[in-house]
Structures are given as structure tokens and as C-alpha cells.
């Protein structure tokens, strides 16, 4: 069962070949054995997980189960879950136990019947590209324990790559699902902004954050997205759209598919072996009947500077609620209320979070708002318009997910700019609010390489089919790190 797909696990549960309790215990045992090395999970509660599994078995026995009922899943520790410690990778929330469920948790566990195995490690408040900013220590990549798994959803990525869980949730603000998926040989999907509710998902940058699935294959991601997506009146940014089956197009032929190749993605700045793997994957698509066309995203080079104005600005606003008064960390010694605020935030936040809060406060301040924040929003519109023009001549855009394979722990920790450039190919997708995904497409130096697929608004079903057809013709997504059996 260790490498079984979600559909295979569902069939085994329905046929009574295994119970949800047995399946859940199997993965809990793996977490107990392998997590001390990987540090992928920060919270595991076997009793809660097994209670959910027993409830799932009861639903299966009663004939009221859904397709995913009883299947264990890992949850990124950015989602509030009732009765679970929800830390967001920060000292500020290290002892916070959520009194309610995020909509994603409610839909996946309460409605679909999935079983939460625990909460996965992450960069603090989702700020990072390596999972090294977590208060609970770095996550290690199962492909090489001396390397990063990517971030901020690195715990989820490492958990699935090492098969501590069959699948996981992640969030993507500037590439935080796609980049760790690429570095850990997984399939990861960032849906169109507003397709998945953000209610109960601890906010980093509200106009950019989006939840999505991480799994071995596109088919698994499609099934998970079915359980995650949907309108939520409690989220003002949730889109009121009819429900759809994201697995409906899986298996459709790719004849006539037009693949756009941005010239800006295929120039300098990408590792040669990574680029070779990406080009080989595109050649495979041509064998499947697709055609390629060169396109241009002329403002894409501005995506990183625009993002690192907009995201910190929104973060400084969102994180102002963590003041030591109502919940979260509070400094022990302070002289007055102002002193309590300052000491609680200084001691409760890590260096990267404080850096972004200060940048955000600066660009929003009087005299600088127009010069920085407003200008960044104008550039954001230009970037989105570039994609609108590109999709007039192509159906899907392809290129590298990350400019390199997984780098070593500590390699970029002292250079924030180099760390920020890890997301150079992914950030524009979030600024435009488009769906994007990463799929395994080969190896460079023994480490995984990801191919990024970008679709038009609400084209998740098409993207998933494009990925699925490639995965039917290749086996990169089936490769597993050595020593995890």
C-alpha cells in the first residue's frame, strides 16, 4: 500500500481489503520511524487520527462513504483544525490550539471523510523557499537529507515524498506548493485564486495566498481538489461558481494542444541540466500531439521586485494581530502595554518574518505608498495582462518550476535575495491569480526536476489532464527516494 494511488487506496477500502484504522496506523508507524530524521511533521495525535479513521470505517460500512473516505492525509500547519495545535511554524503560535476548523479541513475531513494524520512543518508564516525559517527547525529532503525540500510547504512535500502520507495539503503565495513539489519529485497544484476557501488558513498575503493539493500524480491532485474547492460565504475572496469535477477530463488526447514557451523562461539563469530535463519533457508532449509556440511575458522580470513589495505589505497588516494580548506568545517581562507589544513580537517572530514586516510597514508608510506599493500594483496588472495576451495564442504555458534542484541546507540562508530568486518562475502566476502546477520531469545530478504548467483562469481540469497524459507516458512521478521503504 505504500505507493498506492488514492484511487487504489479507495478501492482497497471499499473492498474491505484494509480498514481505515489499519491504513492510518500504517502511516502513523512510518511517521514515528522516519519523522525524527526528516522533521516533516510538527504535530501528530494518533488518538485523534484513529478516531477519525474509526468514523470513516463506520461510513464505509454504512454505505455512505465518498471516494476519499478513510484515506489518510497530511495537513500543512497553516490550516486551523479544531482541537489540533496550529503553529504556522512560529514561536508566536507554538502552543495555540485552534477552536475551529478551516473550511479546507471541514470539507476534506468532515465532508469527504479524509483522515488527518497530523500537521506538517513549514516556513514561519509561510515566508520562505526552503523550510529553514520554521521555529521547529528545518525539514530535510528525503532525496538527500543534507538538502532543503523547498518551501514554504516543505513539510507536506517531504511527508509525501517519503510516503509518510499518501497526499498532503499545501499553500502557495509565490510558489510554495510548486517549488517544493519540484524539489521533492511530486505533483503540486495551485488553483485559480478564489477557487479554494482561505477561511481558517492563517494569512500571509491575502491577495496571493491559495491552498492546493500535493500528491504523487495529477490524478491524485484532481481527486483532492474535488474535496477542497467550492464557494465559501465566510471568505470574501471565495468565488461563487458551480461545482465541477476536476478529474472529468483525465485521459483526453493532447492533439492540437498549443504549448506556449516564454522566451524569458528559457534564457540565462536556469541550471543547464534542469533546462535539459524541461526541454525533454516538452519534446515528449510534442510526441503526444501538442505543438509549441514561442511567446513573451515581457514584464515577468519585474515579478520578484513587485512581489516583494506587495507580499510584505500585506503581511505587515495581517501579522499585526499577533500582539501578545488575545492569543499566541506573550513576553514574560515587560513594563507597560507598549513594552509588551514590542517584546512579544520581537521574541515571538523569527528573523525572516520580522524582515518582511518591516519592509511592508515601510512601503505602506506615508510618503512611500505611491512610490512603492501603488507602483507594484501597477506592475502586477501589467504582468497579468501579459498572460492574457499569451493565452490568445496558446492553451498552456510551460517552463521550469525552479531554476535549480534542491540546494544544501544553509546554502542561501544568509542571502535573502538569492533565496527570493528561487521563486523567479513561479511568482508571476500568483500575482496574476492564475492556476499553475509542477510535475516531475526528470533528474539532474540525482535530484528531482519539476516542469511548470500554467493555465488560463479556471483551467484546472485542463491542466490536470495535460499533466496526467504526460504521466501516463513517463514514470518520473513514480520514482521514490532510496531507503524509504
Automatic annotation (TrEMBL):
**PROSITE patterns recorded for this chain?**
AMIDASES
What job does the chain carry out? Allows the formation of correctly charged Gln-tRNA(Gln) through the transamidation of misacylated Glu-tRNA(Gln) in organisms which lack glutaminyl-tRNA synthetase. The reaction takes place in the presence of glutamine and ATP through an activated gamma-phospho-Glu-tRNA(Gln).
Mind naming one GO cellular-component term on file for this protein? glutamyl-tRNA(Gln) amidotransferase complex
**Which residues lie in coiled coils?**
none
Q: Which residues form the Amidase domain?
A: 22-464
Q: What is its EC number?
A: 6.3.5.7
Which gene carries the instructions for this protein?
gatA
> The organism's lineage?
Bacteria, Pseudomonadati, Pseudomonadota, Betaproteobacteria, Rhodocyclales
The record's section on Pfam families has: Amidase
Which protein, by its recorded name, is this? Glutamyl-tRNA(Gln) amidotransferase subunit A
Among the GO biological process terms of this entry, one is: translation
Subunit comment for this entry? Answer: Heterotrimer of A, B and C subunits.
Report the catalytic activity: L-glutamyl-tRNA(Gln) + L-glutamine + ATP + H2O = L-glutaminyl-tRNA(Gln) + L-glutamate + ADP + phosphate + H(+)
Q: Which family does it belong to?
A: Belongs to the amidase family. GatA subfamily.
What InterPro entries does the record tag this protein with? Amidase, Amidase_CS, Amidase_dom, AS_sf, GatA
Amino acid at each position: 500500500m505504500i505507493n498506492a494511488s488514492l484511487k487504489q487506496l479507495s478501492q482497497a477500502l471499499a473492498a474491505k481489503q484494509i480498514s481505515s484504522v489499519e491504513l492510518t496506523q500504517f502511516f502513523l508507524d512510518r511517521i514515528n520511524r522516519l519523522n525524527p530524521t526528516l522533521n516533516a511533521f510538527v504535530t501528530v495525535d494518533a488518538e485523534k487520527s484513529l478516531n477519525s479513521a474509526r468514523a470513516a470505517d463506520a461510513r464505509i460500512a454504512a454505505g455512505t462513504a465518498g471516494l476519499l473516505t478513510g484515506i489518510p492525509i497530511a495537513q500543512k500547519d497553516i490550516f486551523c483544525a479544531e482541537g489540533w495545535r496550529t503553529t504556522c511554524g512560529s514561536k508566536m503560535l507554538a502552543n495555540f490550539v485552534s477552536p475551529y476548523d478551516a473550511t479546507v479541513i471541514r470539507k476534506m475531513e468532515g465532508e469527504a471523510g479524509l483522515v488527518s494524520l497530523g500537521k506538517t512543518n513549514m516556513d514561519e508564516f509561510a515566508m520562505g523557499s526552503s523550510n529553514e525559517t520554521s521555529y521547529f527547525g528545518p525539514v530535510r529532503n528525503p532525496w538527500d537529507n543534507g538538502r532543503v525540500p523547498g518551501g514554504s510547504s516543505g513539510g507536506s512535500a517531504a511527508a509525501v515524498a517519503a510516503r509518510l502520507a499518501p497526499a498532503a495539503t499545501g499553500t502557495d503565495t509565490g510558489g510554495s506548493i510548486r517549488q517544493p513539489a519540484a524539489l521533492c519529485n511530486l505533483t503540486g497544484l495551485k488553483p485559480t485564486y478564489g477557487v479554494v476557501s482561505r477561511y481558517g488558513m492563517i494569512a500571509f498575503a491575502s491577495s496571493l495566498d491559495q491552498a492546493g493539493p500535493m500528491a504523487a500524480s495529477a490524478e491524485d491532485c484532481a481527486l483532492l481538489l474535488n474535496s477542497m474547492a467550492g464557494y465559501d460565504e465566510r471568505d470574501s475572496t471565495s468565488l461563487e461558481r458551480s461545482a465541477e469535477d476536476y478529474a472529468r477530463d483525465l485521459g483526453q488526447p493532447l492533439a492540437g494542444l498549443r504549448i506556449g514557451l516564454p522566451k524569458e523562461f528559457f534564457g540565462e539563469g536556469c541550471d543547464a541540466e534542469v533546462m535539459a530535463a524541461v526541454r525533454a519533457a516538452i519534446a515528449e508532449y510534442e510526441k503526444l500531439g501538442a505543438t509549441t509556440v514561442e511567446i513573451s511575458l515581457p514584464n515577468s522580470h519585474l515579478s520578484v521586485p513587485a512581489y516583494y513589495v506587495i507580499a510584505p505589505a500585506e503581511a505587515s497588516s495581517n501579522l499585526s494581530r499577533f500582539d501578545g494580548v488575545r492569543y499566541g506568545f506573550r513576553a514574560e517581562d515587560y513594563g507597560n502595554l507598549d513594552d509588551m507589544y514590542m517584546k512579544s513580537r520581537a521574541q515571538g517572530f523569527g528573523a525572516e518574518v520580522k524582515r518582511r514586516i518591516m519592509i511592508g510597514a515601510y512601503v505602506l508608510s506615508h510618503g512611500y505608498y505611491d512610490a512603492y506599493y501603488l507602483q507594484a500594483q501597477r506592475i502586477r496588472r501589467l504582468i497579468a495582462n501579459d498572460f492574457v495576451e499569451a493565452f490568445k495564442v496558446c492553451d498552456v504555458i510551460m517552463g521550469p518550476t525552479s531554476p535549480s534542484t534542491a540546494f544544501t541546507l544553509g546554502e542561501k540562508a544568509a542571502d535573502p535575495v538569492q533565496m527570493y530568486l528561487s521563486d523567479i518562475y513561479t511568482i508571476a502566476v500568483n500575482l496574476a491569480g492564475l492556476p499553475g502546477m509542477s510535475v516531475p520531469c526528470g533528474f539532474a545530478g540525482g535530484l528531482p526536476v519539476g516542469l511548470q504548467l500554467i493555465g488560463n483562469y479556471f483551467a484546472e481540469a485542463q491542466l490536470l489532464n495535460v499533466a496526467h497524459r504526460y504521466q501516463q507516458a513517463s514514470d518520473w512521478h513514480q520514482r521514490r527516494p532510496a531507503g524509504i521503504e
